[in-house]
Amino acid sequence: MKRLMTGTLALLATFTLAACGSATVESGSEVSPDATVAPLERGDGGLSSSSESETSEERSSKETKESTEASTSKSEPAPEDRGAQEVEQAPTPQVDTSNAGFLDAVAGGGVDIIGVENQLVSAAHTACDPDDDVTILAVAGQLVEQERTDKDVEEVVALINEQAQAAYC
Hints:
By secondary structure, the chain is mainly α. The chain is built from 6 helices and no strands. It has a domain at 115-168.
């Protein structure tokens, strides 16, 4: 068994090295430092110009002038990067006033909703979907596990579902 394993590992190593052999640089394939590349010429991009006799210097001068005018446009301010700033307190999420009735009803039912308002509203919108019976159950389970209520999961599901049906469906 050990011979079979050793032979397999040796064969695997051989194939691995053979596969990598074509990725290495051969000494004869290096580019000589004396080799140069011809500079690229700017063309008109296949468009015919009204002045075919215009020299490359005139075209270059015109392009430089146009790019300078475009970059100094005063209509758009240049974007500015700013450094990171230290934050002393995390921003509090703003809750839409149209959801206040639902949130007040859930809070009145004995659930601490501070900090989870958006999650509750999102879960409540799924109460109108007859195919989604998991979201409200998951949110209710989280509220119970986070000790935001003294109720059990079934009571919290019933509370959220009842208030959501009244508010959104």
